[in-house]
Structure prediction request, 598 residues.
Amino acid sequence: MCGIVGYAGNKDTISVLLHGLEKLEYRGYDSAGIAYLENGEIKVSKCKGRLINLQEKLADRHTENIGTGIGHTRWATHGEPNDINSHPHLSKNNQFCIVHNGIIENYISLRDNLIREGYHFESNTDSEVITHLLHFNYNGEMIETILKTINQLEGSYALAIICKDHDDKVFCVRKESPLIVGSGTGENFIASDIPAILKYTREIFIMEDNEIAIIDKDNITFFNSFGSSISKNEVLVTWDEKASEKGGFEHFMLKEIHEEPESIRKTINPRIKNNHIVLEGITLEKPKKIAIVACGTAYHAGVVGKYLIEKLLRIPVEVDIASEFRYREPIIDEDTLTIIISQSGETIDTLFALRKAREKGSRILSIVNVVGSSIARESDDVLYTWAGPEIAVASTKAYSTQLSAIYLITLMMYEGKDKELLISQLKDIPDQISKVIKDMSAIQKASSLLFGSKSIFFIGRGLDYALSMEGSLKLKEISYIHSEAYAGGELKHGTIALIEEGTPVICSLTQHDLIDKMISNIREVKARGAYVMVITQESHCEQVKEVADMIVMIPEVNPVFSPVIAVVPMQLFAYFCSVEKGNDVDKPRNLAKSVTVE
Ligand code: G6P
Prediction:
């Protein structure tokens, strides 16, 4: 969601800000803007739509004497995406200017009070209230003013602020929305995420809730919520800018699918020693119950986890969508292990679900990709997925590494006789995925035949059903084709009414003990005219041939591991459909990579 950058230094501020925003595009946005101090005046440039519009608008802007600025990509929550609602927002007398990520829940009452005090509002955003409130509270002392202002705000925020009276400085503060500070030589930065500043520095500070940072070109100073100066530890980012570039691929999504084998290797290999699973500092004893909580793709990884853990460990598992978990009364206690799954580690619903589980006394083990993210920091134990930066909004390598982490956790607690065999089979997964990626022709053909469909259904049973949910989500996200995933046996209770002549049905068929049942379900849809594509293994080919219009083959693997392999053709199918339709594959409409608002 919204992306923030801030800069203080001698480089061309406009270029640094635009570069940062470009690197934050992956988060999802519908407008963009920057503000900078020039000869003591704040100048704002912003507009609706893609960043290129802003870049064109600023193409011939002179940039001498500019040393401080802030930038923003906006994902609309309050007020439609238009030029006026875009950030930055100026205060009265153009004295303050802010960019905001998050939602101010009490903005209506704050706005009404400010209007009574003579303030005029231009936009429909909740954010504009902040800039006027800063102006209203201003007493010449920035830290006092910021503290007074944030004490009046309810909701979440990452804020970057510039002020006419302090033209060499950028101020920032956060609560529940991510923010980092980057330390350079003769220049310093603020950003929502690391890629925005990686071109300039790998030395960063992670802001905590209600901490304030002030940067100028030579200094970074931090303050706590009482206004006292504090020191913070610097973190060195271990990946470089190349990791967040396309590296010759047409889209980040395709690059990231190709990175799946390596990401899985990085996630599992260091944790398997002499065919035993060793998770850094994590000792797991079988809990009485497990709760898995996540959103989106991470939730789908959790659904696979439920099938897997219940099958292999015989522990009851509840899996919840974080936004539901937060507001229901989940029955969990100190005997429950809560597993939180999140690529970004910043998804607001997931973070609050974590806090709810903790309140109930549950131990928190999180599976997170972004080191030092809020979820990682608030968990008792963290199992990092080493997927590296995932830029495409549609998650691919994050999902397969999340599954890998779930396999590690499950197999660590597993006591069956075939434990060592399963561990060695887990190690083979990256090679199996490489085989799938090596020959994409069948899946490309399927996409070229089916990309024009109005609706595509995914069906499966057991782990194949769990996997189908992810296949269906991928397709919706980037190809904009309506899609549903259904449990094979549940089709006849409603959804089968939608199957008509030519309706595509994609069936994942990898669970040996459920093959016959699935074949019957395929016959049911075939009888209603469906066009059936089956993703399966050689061993089921004979049976499948009779009912399938098209077969996509995946390598022969133990059925417990098939989701992590069979998801790859589904990801590729969604990818090629999106390409065929000419969509913006990496930045699908209306979606955000990091969902930092409720
Ligand atoms: C957004 C992204 C999805 C992601 C979900 C959860 O919807 O577009 O790809 O699965 O958020 O994000 P998380 O970072 O918590 O895994």
User: Anything to note?
Assistant: The first strand starts at residue 3 and ends at 9. The chain has 18 helices and 27 strands. The CA atoms of residues 103 and 156 lie 5 Å apart.
